[in-house]
Design goal:
The complex is a heterodimer of chains A (161) and B (756). By secondary structure, chain A is α+β, with helices and mostly antiparallel strands. In chain A, 34% of the residues lie in helices and 16% in strands. In chain A, a hairpin with a 2-residue loop joins strand 3 and strand 4. A five-stranded mixed β-sheet of chain A has the order 2-1-5-3-4, sandwiched between helices. Chain A contains five helices and five strands; from the N terminus they run ββαβββαααα. Chain A has helices at residues 26-33, 89-96, 106-119, 125-131, 143-160; strands at 5-11, 14-20, 52-55, 58-61, 74-76. In chain A, helix 2 (89-96) packs across helix 5 (143-160). Chain A folds into two domains: 5-80, Beta-grasp domain (Ubiquitin-like (UB roll)); 89-160, Orthogonal Bundle (DNA polymerase, domain 1). Chain B is an alpha+beta fold and 756 residues long. Among the domains of chain B are: 21-28 and 466-604, 2-Layer Sandwich (Aldehyde Oxidoreductase, domain 4); 32-141 and 232-290, Aldehyde oxidase/xanthine dehydrogenase, a/b hammerhead (Aldehyde Oxidoreductase, domain 3, Alpha-Beta Complex), CATH 3.90.1170.50; 425-456 and 612-755, Aldehyde oxidase/xanthine dehydrogenase, molybdopterin binding domain (Aldehyde Oxidoreductase, domain 4). In chain B, the strands form seven sheets. Chain B has a seven-stranded mixed β-sheet with strand order 3-7-1-15-12-13-14, sandwiched between helices. The longest helix of chain B is centred in the C-terminal third of the chain and has 28 residues, at 533-560. Chain B is globular, with a radius of gyration of 27 Å. Classes of the chains: A alpha+beta (161), B alpha+beta (756). Chains A and B meet through helix 2, helix 3, helix 4 and helix 5 of A and helix 1 and helix 18 of B.
């Protein structure tokens, strides 16, 4: 019997098929098989949030999802957030608000923020801080990240009104 | 807030979008672990399960026989280092110790100490093979308590370590036998005994801090390829590609010119990504296989085998007169070096009284080996420890004298001309200004309502350093400049350096395109550390810009047929004697017709920065039932000289403050009796999350540093120093207990409340 499995999923709107070992995580599949290195590995045990992607509408830490579990799933990653060369509101808010320093946690934080604003378009500061508490950033002290999320919420509201 | 009349800058002080920003918000930026090379193998390390043991034998035969395994290396494959020390950019390093830290030879000195490495077709096979390596150990008693490690009869880690006596007042230590006490610094100034005799009030306490980690989110990584021509290429995440090159070359005993280090984007460092762990191992695996080998650490490896900053034990005493003048200080400081000598005890000694003008002081400091990971720099290394002690005692003196602690600090502050205990005299500095900024802040003036609440302030100092930097700058025909630099960019320095070049040339930040180059493509540049990059690499960029100005002046003079001396460069234009003008853009467009390319270089070497001070104010609420400390409000003021990009200056202050809050309240390595760290995960090593902290308000005090053409002071390090003491002082005001140990975690605070 083959040691690998075929997985079919939709990633950033594209139908994707890949071969993986049952022991490989979704993060590993994204990074090492599909060459999508935007999701980062900070801890491999679900504590830092650097590998956050949106799976069937929910933010997940992709290091704790097996690649085979992605069968039939719809996945959004940091690579699919910008539309062509146009950054989305969350990316622009992070960029212009200096909400990143080294940038390693940024893809995960942007995905978590996308998930937050989809479910709660007008979060309070407290709601932002609770929702982002699983995404560690060691550089910024979070001040500018929280402000960028507030700014992104306003930008998204302005874009849809 | 400007404390001096600020020149009318056009670029400096603005907030342009950083040049590497789009790549970082779209996931395109390539960090070390993102590299994928054709034929690349995955490496994994075998690490010691014991804190202290002799290695009796290593059998790698089963691992080597596993299908998919391509090579195994141990210290036996690495070159002998002999007895030598090498200058590696930030001080001399004992190569035998560095090599033994990279791959243990005959002894392991901490749990997690690397012993062997495997390269295989994928990481899973490599990890499986690591489990097949058989090692016979003779387990030795471990010592993780610094005071026990200093006792006679303690297990000695390194039989080649003798106590070295250093400082302005060398002590006479017994250097005849192996010991864990690697260094004893002693600094003395004035007459300490007389100083204390003159004091009306003397306070003295003992303090302890635990081992904490820098906590960068990106684990260490390195990919190496040893080519058939003997050249070694390394791609890695590092704070300094040139020191990484030199360490790698020295460890492999090949010429530095045979190693090229390409710095990938770096996911945080804070001092912990200067020392080399993986590149020589990956290189040796590559030499054996002829293929590139990538090694990436796991998070537990990062905790157990890299970083951390030392735990410490300190006794500090301060004396003051009843009219509020500090007259004497005494400190006895012991820092854990980890498995090998090298804690930041020297800066600890130099910083302990550095915020104040104290005429009589003595400091003794000890660098002590214990069975913990070899310690490394962490943001203002050593200064946070001693600030916790000194600033707690200053608060206690103020309480006993019944004086405002901000005013007391201003009255006793180090100023221009104050001599530090280790000798140097301060140039123009801004300690008083940062305290005054806090004193005048709305936060400090506001009432603090509610039970179990307290407010504390504390100050901190860091030297900052200059060291060496190189840039090259090329003028493009479209009126832009390509800037190549050797400083790796951890938090926006591409932009802060570009802005200084742009200001000097009278162009915009966006008209500069910065690139961080590999070690074959730019001149020697020291680490991004020591708060030096915007300062020193900025000086190099300004020099390059001045050279471009000069070359453009010559081009304009040629066009106008006048002497170059008669042409000036003003506001981005060459201006001739008859008020002829050609803008930078116009001159750039004429380059090919006026003599060809304009390329300039700039270097900085051993510039002496004036040092940085910060003062923080914090409000806390203590839960008397659980001991949990909640940060209610936080304000940090800092002398940043001149803020080039205020957003990133604020970001450094906010990030440093929150690291300090983590150190103060939760972060610690928990060791069991066998010397095993029991919490090597982010779940159990509790760094602050978004939900643990409030907004961090910043006050940028600008006392320009005369050592920099635009007055820049490094800003990265000092903000981590004040938080533990500021929070301890706030906790005291809230519940009336002084806490002398970090972290001030709920169990410790609760115990303090209960034993009140």
């Amino acid at each position: 019997m083959s040691s690998k499995r075929i997985v079919s999923a939709t990633i950033n709107g594209d139908a994707v098929e890949f071969l993986c070992e049952p022991r490989q995580s979704l993060l590993e599949a994204l990074r090492d098989i599909l060459d999508m290195t935007g999701a980062k590995e900070g801890c491999s045990n679900g504590n830092c949030g650097a590998c956050t992607v949106i799976l069937d509408g929910r933010p997940v830490v992709s290091c704790l999802v097996l690649a085979v579990e992605a069968e039939g799933a719809e996945i959004r990653t940091i690579e699919g957030v910008a539309c062509g060369s146009h950054l989305d509101e969350v990316q622009s808010a992070f960029l212009e608000g200096a909400a990143l320093q080294c940038g390693i946690c940024t893809p995960g934080l942007i995905m978590q923020t996308e998930a937050l604003l989809e479910s709660n378009p007008h979060p309070t500061e407290d709601e932002i801080r609770i929702f982002l508490a699983g995404n560690l950033c060691r550089c910024t002290g979070y001040d500018k990240i929280v402000r960028a999320v507030q700014d992104a919420a306003e930008r998204k509201a302005a874009a849809t009104s | 807030m400007a404390t001096a009349d600020k020149p009318n800058y056009k670029v400096i002080g603005t907030r342009p979008v950083r040049h590497d920003g789009v790549d970082k918000v779209t996931g395109r930026a390539l960090f070390g672990a993102d590299l994928n090379l054709t034929g690349m193998l995955a490496g994994a390390m075998l690490r010691s399960p014991h804190a202290h043991a002799k290695i009796v034998s290593i059998d790698t035969s089963k691992a080597a026989a596993l299908a998919g395994v391509r090579a195994v290396v141990t210290s036996a494959d690495m070159p002998e280092q002999g007895d030598r020390t090498v200058e590696l950019g930030e001080g001399a390093v004992n190569m035998r110790h560095l090599a033994a830290n990279v791959l243990a030879a005959d002894k392991v000195l901490y749990k997690g100490h690397a012993i062997a490495a495997v390269a295989a077709d994928n990481i899973h096979i490599a990890q499986e093979a690591v489990g097949l390596i058989e090692i016979q150990y003779e387990v030795l008693p471990a010592v993780t308590c610094i005071r026990k490690a200093m006792e006679d009869g303690a297990p000695v880690l390194n039989d080649d370590v003798r106590t070295e006596s250093l400082g302005s007042h060398p002590a006479s230590d017994d250097s005849s036998k192996p010991t864990n006490i690697a260094k004893h610094f002693c600094f003395e100034m004035g007459d300490t005994a007389q100083g204390f005799a003159d004091a009306d009030i003397v306070v003295e306490r003992e303090f302890e801090t635990t081992t904490v980690h820098q906590g960068y989110i990106e684990p260490h990584n390195a990919t190496a390829f040893w080519n058939a021509d003997g050249k070694v290429s390394v791609w890695m995440s590092t704070q300094g590609s040139f020191t990484a090159r030199q360490q790698t070359a020295e460890l492999l005993r090949i010429p530095v010119s045979s190693v090229k280090v390409t710095p990938m984007e770096i996911g945080g460092g804070f001092g912990g990504k200067i020392s080399v762990y993986l590149p020589p191992v990956a290189a040796m695996l590559s030499k054996k296989t002829g293929r590139p080998v990538k090694i990436v650490m796991g998070r537990n490896d990062v905790f157990e085998a890299t970083g951390p900053t030392p735990g410490s034990y300190m006794k500090v005493k301060l004396g003051a007169t009843k009219d509020g003048k500090l007259v004497a200080g005494e400190a006895w400081l012991a820092f854990e070096a980890g498995g090998f000598p090298g804690s930041p005890i020297a800066p600890g000694c130099m910083c302990v009284f550095s915020c104040y003008n104290i005429a009589n002081a003595r400091v003794d400091g000890f660098d002590v080996c214990v069975n913990k990971p070899r310690t490394n720099a962490y943001r203002a290394p050593g200064s946070t420890h001693v600030a916790f002690a000194t600033e707690t005692l200053v608060d206690e003196i103020c309480e006993q004298l019944g004086v405002d602690s901000a005013e007391f600090r201003i009255n006793n502050a180090a100023v221009e001309g104050t001599r530090r205990v280790d000798g140097p005299v301060f140039p123009r500095i801004g300690m008083q200004e940062t305290v005054d900024a806090i004193r005048q802040s709305e936060h400090y003036q506001s009432p603090l309502g509610g039970p179990n609440r307290g407010r504390g302030i504390a100050s901190g100092f860091w030297f900052n350093c200059g060291l060496k930097s190189s840039v090259t700058a090329t003028v493009n025909l479209d009126g832009t400049v390509t800037l190549v630099e050797g400083s790796t960019d951890i938090g926006g320095t591409r932009t802060s350096i570009s802005m200084q070049l742009a200001e000097t040339l009278g162009i915009t930040a966006e008209e500069v395109t910065p690139t961080v180059a590999d070690t074959d493509s730019i001149g020697y540049t020291d680490v991004t550390g020591g708060s030096r990059t915007t300062f020193a690499t900025g000086i190099a960029a300004v020099k390059a810009a001045v050279e471009i100005q000069q070359q453009l002046i010559e081009r304009a003079a040629m066009l106008w047929e006048v002497e170059a001396d008669a042409v000036k460069y003003v506001d981005g234009s060459a201006v001739g004697p008859a008020d002829q003008r050609l803008t930078f853009k116009e001159l750039a467009a004429k380059l090919n017709a006026t003599g060809g390319p304009v390329v300039a270089k700039g270097t900085a070497s051993e510039e002496s920065p004036g040092g940085a001070f910060g003062t923080h104010c914090v409000d806390v609420e203590v839960d008397p039932d659980t001991g949990k400390v909640q940060i209610l409000r936080y304000t940090a003021s800092q002398d940043c000289g001149t803020a080039i990009h205020p957003s990133y200056v604020e970001g450094q202050i906010q990030g440093g403050a929150v690291q300090g809050i983590g150190w103060a309240l939760n972060e610690e390595y928990w060791y069991d009796d066998e010397g095993e760290m029991r919490n090597p995960t982010y779940l159990d090593y509790r760094m602050p999350t978004c939900y643990d902290v409030p907004m961090i308000d910043t006050i940028l005090v600008e006392v320009p540093d005369p050592a920099h053409p635009y007055g820049v002071r490094g800003v990265g390090e000092v903000p981590i120093c004040p938080p533990p003491a500021a929070i301890a002082n706030a906790i005291y005001q809230a519940i009336g207990v002084r806490i002398e140990s970090l972290p001030m975690s709920p169990p410790r605070v609760l115990k303090a409340i209960q034993s009140k």
